[in-house]
Protein 1
Amino acid sequence: MFKFRQSTASSPGTGGRRRGRRRLEVQRLRDRLLDAHWLWLVVLVVLGTWLMAPDGTFLRPYFEVGQIAAHDHVASRDLLLLDEATTEDKRRRAREEVLTIYDLDASREAAQDEQFARLFAAGRDALRGRGSGDEEADTPLWQVLQENSRLRLDEAQARMLARRGFSAELEDQVRALVRSLLRAGVVTNKELLLEHRMRGIVLRNVQSGEEQTQLDLYEYRGYPDDVRRYLELEVGRWAAWRREDREQLVTLLLLNTPPNISLNLGATRARQEQAATAVEPVYNQFRRGQVVARKGDQLGTAQVRILRELSGAESSWRQMLPVLGSSLLLLLAGVAVVQGVRRTKLAVGVDARALGGMLVLLVLSLGAARLGILMAEALAETFDRPVLQSARSYSYAIPFGSLALVVSLLYGRGAALLVTMGFSLVVGRMAGEGAWWGTFYVLATSLTAIYALDRFKQRAAITRAGAVVGLVGMAASLTLALLAGFESLSPSVLAFDLACALLGGVLVAAATSFLVPMLEAVLPVTTDMTLLELSDTNLPLLRRLAFEAPGTFQHSLMVASLAKAGCEAIEANAVLAYTGALYHDIGKILRPQYFIENQREGQNPHDKLAPSISALILVNHVKEGVEMAHEYRLPPPIVDAIEQHHGTRPLSFFLNRAIEQHGADGVDEHQYRYPGPKPCNKVMGVLMLADAVEAASRTLRDPSDVVLEGLLRRLFDDCLHDGQLDGSELTLGDLAAVSAAFLRVLRTIHHRRIDYPGYVFQDPAAGERRLRAVESR
């Protein structure tokens, strides 16, 4: 059996293989993490919400009364703090100023007078009916009197009135006494009433609703003590009355002269609360920069309330809605980026892994932007000069455009545009409430960064882009200053704003120059600059190809020229096509003699091999090229060029030879095809066509335009019908443009020259004789 022999120079040692396996494992772990773009979306929302949350929302400082201030506490913003103690004191005074309301039932005097009139009338009728007040009857007298008058009395009191004969004189005296009491006013609790003697009360007539302010409260009689003393005094003046009769009469009157003035506590409290509600709250205003407490001070109650309010500890529930809004904003921005990149063909190789990379960059950029804003605020508080106390001015120096420039270089302008839109909205929210200037400034500088760089072919291009970003940043800062109005337009502040904006452009270039090489190593992304560096034919691997497989090297140079011209014709990445073509056949280094471009005339080792072995050797150069690419740490696009430049095309020569030897039924066609995969984008499709065209053009004896056009048409049709270009996104219009570009290059390669005078290169013997003849002359 034929055994493959690998070159000793290419065989890594055990340590090298171990390092290669470790490196491959790290790359696979990185790829899995980047593929999980929904994980990075969650990280974006969580971290971004934390960054945009107001101070003290999640990590709140602890303040208590009596605590010693560890440093100076300065108000970080204008604060209007409710003075609860003063407000409550004003409301208490407003409640106290409301006079207590007492209700006067004016109808009680007439009602009681009528009841006593019925009492005496019923008594006289009863005496006439019985003939004598001492006679017994079926119904007791007191019960008859109680039923007719609705007054409260007992049997002894009824007998006392009967002995007096229910006289009209007594009736007048009793009714006058009751009217006098109720007209003067009888109150339930006089001691409670006298508590208001200094300010008076409001006496409200229950029937009419009329209100009067009463200041003299001593004239009212308290029930029952004052009423009893008054009755005893008045009845005691009546002559010819026994002591027992007086006591019975006083008791009767006391029981049937109820209070007609009562405290209305409900109405009083309602008016007190109405007065308290009408009191305007008292606020204490603190200006930004005002010292709340100095280092070493003992914190008092008011200072603790102010510090808690500034840190958000007093109003955390109020901050939940803005926090939820920030989370929703971040989620919408992240989903827009993911869906936009997914549904739009933005650049070569933009897939789920690239989505993860973009989200990682967005997360890191938000953290850097937050840090920059905090540094700007800290710088503004450090200096005493007014021109240096503007946090917005320092914010202009933050290299916001770096994200757009980096994403544009790594993933293309379309991806950068989507990321920039979300980033500018989030930074505007991060800069503070109503800080639309942040969105405007970030958007202006980022869009400039995206479109200021056409192709990254020289490191100086980043510097030029940074300069343009700085100029546009100056224009944006000037625009914001003009929009702020003449009052806030200070020449010194404006000059400082312009200087910071220009510095921001310089920092954009510096940050991008530093980050791009590092991100290329971390993320599976390759820029045009790296591809240009890899196209240097003096690099070790290409020099090895040139010395060990010179025919393959020349073939690769021609394929590179064809692929570059074809990609330029359809506006694809010509740099990737050129560099990928240089490396696409590096697998032939291990066994160069088995490939015809490296063979000398009459020395073809395949003549001694079975067709299946020959096919295996040829097919294996793709696998070996991929292994060498990993060994030399070539970027993924170059590896793709090595894997896809043949697709799954058949090795027609050895397939036909196998069919001649074994018949069609005894041959497995799959064994005579390259492993693939097929080209997955336009660049790889053009590279496949360039490789096939260059190899086929070497067989032409008469490379005229007609012959070249037929060759191109035949090869293009074969690739189309075999399905090799199905995933390349090449259209028929693209293929026509590529074919025209190939034809121009082939004409240049196979150009004709006039014969040299005196030389016949087609007949070496005749040419040698002619040369000797010429020399002999």
Protein 2
Amino acid sequence: MQTATFSSKISRSVRGWLFVWAVLLTAEVTEGQTASPSYDFFESKIRPVLVEHCYECHSADNAEGGLRVDLAATLRRGGEHGPAVVPQQPEASWLLTAVSHTDAELRMPPKGAKLPGAIIADFRKWIEMGAPDPRMEVSVPAETWTGYKAAKSHWAYLPPQMHPVPRVTDLTWARQGIDRFVLSTLEKNGLHPSIDAEPPTLLRRIYFDLIGLPPTPTEAEHFLQMYDAQGLDIAMEWVVDDLLQRPQFGQRWGRHWLDVARYGESSGGESNVSFPYAWRYRDYVINALNADLPYDRFLTEQIAGDLLPYANDSERARLLTATGFLAVGPKNLGENDDQKFLADLVDEQIDSLSRALLANSIACARCHDHKFDPFSMEDYYGLAGIFASSKTYFGTFTSPANNRGGDPLVLPRTRDQRIYHKSLSPVEFEKLKARQHELDIVRQEIKEAQAARWSGQEPKKIFTLRDVLANLWQLGPVEGKLETLDEHGQALPLAMGVLDARIANVPLLLRGEIDRPGSLVPRAFPQALRGSEVSLPVDQSGRLELAHWLTAAHHPLTSRVYVNRVWKHLFGGGLVASVDNFGTTGDKPSHPDLLDTLAVQFVQDGWSTKALIRTLVLSRTYRQASLYRAEDFRADPEGRLLWRMPKRRLSAEAIRDAMLFTSGELDFGAAEASLVATHIGDRPISLIGLDRRLPPDLDGSTHPSVYLPVIRDRLPQVLDLFDFAEPSFVVGDRETTNVPVQALYLLNSPFVQQRAQAFAARLERETSTDTGLVQSAFQWCFNRMPDTNELERALAYLSSQEDDQQLLRVSFCQAMLCTAEFRNLD
């Protein structure tokens, strides 16, 4: 508080210096800059608040005090008080001082109550992030640059075309068309591809890319024998086909989609209420990837599975579960206003759908026409009507920590269905229904008392606010429990998802504000990308038609975006580097003809993910070594032209799973639902810290990491430290950091120490000599034998103390698990 008060009284000269300093350290966003999760935070948390509370007095129409907050540059420049925002300096940013009400003479908004604490915390976090702000000034007159012109000229909004395979000079290197596209670009730029990676290195790369685990020494030996006998082509085809059929493939590639689907098992925000049925959607995704469900069908089921025909109850349950895609996003369950909650829910669904499938944010058009991409406010509210005509089932009940109840989605009963909430005995069930009846009577009496007061009459009973809240908080859990039971008190199979509700168009909201409705907007798809007119049924929401439109063969974005995402996971970067932004502010493709050809071929091959991956992995481009070549690096330092494979840090899940695999402890089977379902249930996440039944790090299992609980704002430690995807956003490209706390975790974590102990025990069972132990350790960890120097140094360490050989072996094993080679991929 003292710091904030001091900062609010900084002299004008100091504020001026801070402004100059901020300008020098921060560059304005310019056209072509890549979007990031930081921009997502601005769009979801900051821009709506600025629009609702600040634009009226501080925008192009009315810049009071010389301040405009509707552009990045003007917000940082500030007004008569100096810079409103100083990136990474919240105490020097008087905008934060104003909204915090820490200066009696500078309070914003000037009329009305102080903004909620959660919003103020969001502004502080945003400034600490560097105040990322994608808004930019238009450098050409508005009448000559519109989003609709982008639809006619921007590469991503034009249908992809099959291109002929280019001619190349080197006729010996390429194995398939992909290689000739890559080689042609290299030759045009005076570059050449790298040599093939060594077979052991290549095998380790394939294993981690396809199943997220390393090969065993036995598997590696078998691969090398096949390589010696039949050559690399046959050996690679055999191993790729084998890995694509393993259940670990769905776990690995299902996790990639869960990043994009912003999968989480709690609501996020201040209350952070758990979603105990979210795990069913996770399992649906894993099973769909293992079954190679065609991508167009995969999307259709997630958008409109409830509207698809089905042959039996099992298929119906699966299709309903698929719609969890629209339900698992973050929610402000503390919101009291029904209209605002629904509008924000629909907005989150539109934003997630458009970012995940189209790599565009249509939600930007909630408050204004998109200035650069072909999405108008009419487009936004046309889609909003489709989602507002559906009911989202997320399975929470009202409580002191949650103002917002959401029914669970009841599934048909099927054989071997897993249910983790309890049934009630007939006596318990009748008691619960009786309690509901008692509380319902009180609620009705409260309503009658309120109606009497509104009409000026004396109510029959007097209820205090405490009485009202007590009734609400007692009735919520009772109703919530009853919603999980059938008419006999037996537990129902439940999921998260959507069903069609009352079909209706929604009004266009001026500046996106709930209290400023305009005319109704017919339900429709974005006009500039729509093609021919599509009529939506009067008795359905239109989600099924939306899914068919998105998965049409000629759609310009859907196949391109997905192919690029798959390429990114195999080659370390997308052909379009901004994998989550194909709009005009995103990056241009490095190989546009190759991207288009792959997108068209993907559709022609039946939208098969496994066929696409097989094609890419068996290319000569994928085989390249990651060796450094100074001359080529100077010409193409980011490797965009694909002259080598980049070195990559393993994902958080792969690091954890590889440790369990190497130590012999990994339980390959699917986990029992999720910790959220089996232990936390439907309680607020804020309370689970008091539950001694839960492991301190939420990582108490030996199952693959995809089954760890994904609780917003409280991830398992290994996921949090090694750059797991933020579960509140669509993330197609995780950040990769290298910070000291990661090393400290590897050195001090009980999880890593336990894996080292188990690894040492495994090695002792496999060999009786130190030499054999070291060699076996290198094979398990690095898929290679130690060289002479490594072997000598390891043996010297193991013989350095005779008193405690067991401790030496454990520490040696932990050192192996902590090495950069273990957690990086060549």
Protein 3
Amino acid sequence: MSGTRTEPRAADGAAEAEAGGTPGSGPDSRTAHDPARRPSLRGWFDDIAMGLRFAFGGGREGWLRTCLTSVGVGVGVAVLLFAASVPHMMEAQDARKASWTPTSTFQEEPRKSDQTLLSDTANTEFRGESVRGRILDPDGEQPPVPAGLEAIPEPGEVVVSPKLRELLRSSEGDLLKPRVPGEITGTISKEGLAGPQELAFYAGSDDLTSDTASRVDGYGPQEGESQPLPAALMLLIVVACVVLLLPVGAFIAAAVRFGGERRDRRLAALRLTGADTRMTRRIAAGEAAGGSLLGLAVGGVFFLLLRESATAVRVQGLSLYSSDLLPHPGLTALLAIAVPGCAIAVTLLALRGVVIEPLGVVRQTPTRKRRLWWRVLPMLLGVALLLPYLGGFAEGETQSDVDTFQLAAAVVLILVGVTALLPWLVESVVRRTRGGPVALQLAVRRLQLDSGTSARAVSGVTVAIAGAIALQVLFGAVQEDETTLSGGPRFDSQLLVSTPAQEHATAEALRADLDRSQGVRETIALTSSFAIPADAGPDGMEDSVTVGDCASLRTLAKIDSCEPGDTFVVTDSDPGATPKPGTTYAMDDPAGDAKSGDKGRAERWKLPEDARPVSSHQAHDDFSVTSGILTTPEAVDDTRLTQGYSDVHVRTDPGNEDTTEHVRNTAARFSMAADTFNQTDTRVSQEFAAIKRGIYAASAALLLLIGASLTISTLEQLRERKRLLSVLVAFGTRRSTLGWSVFWQNAIPILLGVALAAATGVGLGLLLLQLAGVPMSVDWLAIGGLASLGGLLILLVTLLSAPVLWRMMRPDGLRTE
């Protein structure tokens, strides 16, 4: 291999200085040095049209180069089309969800009439999948009908979603059938489902009461403005969008430069036919435009194919109808203009470092060091844009459009700075690398000759990892901020079954049923409600009342001795808020009795004078009762606690995988309103959970894009080096050595890029934490996992390119024409 990037060429101006028919001096030449002979507008179009002909009519080599470019651009375009579909997707899903939401959800409950119905939730979960259920009981002949239903199901009937019908008909559905009450008589249509993979049902009933069910007079969008997202969550969305989309631009920019060396040699041949420098640049721009235009078409085909198959995919509980994926017209038009424009701009910028002469191509030699000063400017400018927000947003403050665009621009500039720094870093490292195995030397020598191509190929990976690390830092901190303790007693339980307290339907009754369930080892039962002092009036402060046997109460407080009939008062709170023995309480909600016309019927109960003070357990991972009354069932009639919840904590047999489903079935037989979920210490806000699902779904698509980017880039580089590989094999170089050289050629830029990405990502993430106003915390394990993604990509790309590499290392690669 030569140590320069100079190919055979004539001296500057030598061809033009020759007389007669020498190329470049004939009457048909359009030279750049003669303003009078500058081409007309038609000449510009002719040059661009010639470039298009080269793109589509350059023989097998031309078609292969154009196909690689179009596939690379097409993958990026498909991802951008999906991104352009997000506004319509969100609108369509929000509209469908609103169509089954009662209009009275956030309003005063309507009066009973011929046009109302009672609705009760029957949500459940089956092997990690959420199941949305509703029980409907019409009050008259003209009840409101949720979207997706033709009519309200009769008692004993149930209408299910297509996916739920399919599940119930399978062998796995036997465990779910007890929680879907009634005979299936219909299917919910598309208008009543969030997505095609949603599990949902509506069941008819005739025994709902207003004590537990809600009265509904209509379904549809809610009145009033929706609550804006907190600043931290909005910042998370902005950063996620930038992180997920910026690598796509880097991928497209790399794809349009496929076959650059062969293109430059072809342009040198055009110089022999009389083309000047400007003409060759216009021809190159036309060729790049041709590949990018074909890439637009390929991207559209990819998008349509993936759009039709989107109905079969469910990621983090999110599924879509193909009609939801409709790109925004304005964004689509912008994409159609921006992609060819980007392709032309990247091509012209690449030609600035190349001198194309009639007898060859001269490239900038590696002795000319890349300058560092301008490569750090984007990062510095991005940090400058973030400085006004380092104090954080005020509590409850939301971001304006200007804030959003400024934050997005700052993140873009910092991540773009990574792509600018990477070529300088790779060049600096490989210039100083000496020695090592033959495979490593071959890879290093190749990078010394042309490190820019490899750096561009992995720039998308570097941007993605840097952004992902920054997003992970922000993600973890926001998750901690958006997570609250869910509560659980000091009992090593796996499941919690909770149901509204009903008359004669206490926690003990639910516990008795659960004790007989398959896989249940032990249970504790607690009924929790509240009581208002009788002399405090409807607006008085209530005290919590928790009823359970002695063993159950000991899981909540430090109780030395306990007998049936004992009562305890928790004294951990403010002494003024501690219940006082001898106080008479109204056990039912007086306001609730007044609404129903039963004022004055509230049960009275007197807190015994001998109620003993106790302290609650205060361990950080326990449920701490900081105030209230603890009592045994013998001391109070717990059937009168109709305003609270009956909770049963279940310890299960770890050897039975379906214990959870059996427990849910038992709870559903007891009450369709029962909720069963895994006992955890935390619960995450719904907004954060929805953002998390969307980010994970988009990240999965980004990983596929990164893998495709590296694979296509590696294959294109191997194709350019086909003859060189054949020469090395002919001289006795082992194929395994060449295979390892390809590995190191990918590994060195990626490892350097990952190191740069990790440093940039952590720094950016810490800056974003200041903006979000959340405590600083870094999950180094998660960051290590993201960084190790680079190593996995090296192995994946090497394995995918191995068959092509082996096929190119054949003697017939020496043949030339």
